[in-house]
Amino acid sequence: MKSLAELAAIKERMKDKISLRKGEDNVRVVVGMATCGISAGARAVLNAFVEGVAENGLSDSVTVTQTGCIGMCACEPIVEIFEGNEVKTTYVKVDAEKAKKIISEHLKGGNVVKEYTAENK
Questions:
Q1: What is the pLDDT of residues 41-66, one digit of tens each?
Q2: Which phi and psi angles does 6 have, rounded to 5°?
Q3: CA angle 78-83-89, nearest 5°?
Q4: pTM (2 decimals)?
Q5: How many C-beta atoms lie closer than 10 Å to residue 113's C-beta?
Q6: Measured between alpha carbons, how far is 3 from 19 in angstroms, rounded to an integer?
Q7: Shortest CA distance to 81 belongs to which of 53, 57, 40, 55?
Q8: Cα separation of 104 and 115, whole Å?
Q9: How far apart are CA 41 and CA 38, in angstroms?
């Protein structure tokens, strides 16, 4: 970085992505980002969800966040989706391609992608 103008430009470019990680919307996507998750590829999964939510116009209703260890290290990367206060879906061994399908079918379409859930592994 060489100037305040460059810093302001970076801030403006990243503003939408950062806002996806905050808030209290009715749907939360939580990516496990402990050491086990990161080593299994969770960083790419988190980025895929942040970008996919923005690209699909879901920013007003979906928040993407990260958490530490979820407790099933052999199943990482793990993504939990909370809808309201009651419904939680746990997806396991998620990669960027699976994230795209979860966004289109679950977050946009309202249908759980059962073959990626913990219950089917």
A1: 999 999 999 999 999 999 888 999 99
A2: -65, -40
A3: 35
A4: 0.78
A5: 18
A6: 24
A7: 53
A8: 15
A9: 5
